[in-house]
# Entry
Amino acid sequence: MRILVVEDETVIARALIEGLSAEGYAVDHADSGDTALWMATENSYDAIVLDLMLPRMNGFLVCRNLRERGIATPILVLTAKDGEFDQVEILDTGADDYLAKPFSFVVLLARLRALLRRGPSGTPATLEVDGLVLDPARHRCSRDGTDVELSPREFGLLRYLMHNAGRAVPKRELIEHVWGDDEVDENVLQVYVGYLRRKIDEPFGRSTIDTVRGIGYRLSRSGS
Ligand code: CA
# Structure
């Protein structure tokens, strides 16, 4: 899952980037409204955390512009304090939810997960494919009822593949969504796919992650 954090206050931005990265999200950062608009138009994000008071273009305008361009990425707005802005107005600009500062990071994570669940595919809270179960809220993974320990990066990779189960996901798309960095080498992705196979497939006599030659990887719905 790839998240765009739009926040001009360095301390809050850093806390959000570090916190979300630790949860296994790929995080990009914009510190002004016009940069945010450009980034959200050029890249594909799974959610946007958007501060309202921003240099050059405020959050309201960013939100409205994105919706006018047909970009339906879920948006969680951060407001400076409760009551400063009309909450109805925030939602009317096309935001999906809002949170007043100072906010609890745990609450922000919960709101973000709710938005991601509501995403275009209407994916349920817990992902389940062929005995493989991923619970993003508890950061837990199991196969055939046995718990599997995953690092945040492995978790992020598996989550994206499970969200797209049955589809051959291009390598570059996986790298963009899981690492959030176009510069990451495809060999790194290959190494992580290997880690995942050794954890979720080999011990269970399965082969869930297919290599699709010339494209990338596909999580098969009936790996046997
Ligand atoms: Ca601000």
Q: What stands out?
A: The two ends are 27 Å apart (CA to CA). The mean pLDDT is 87.
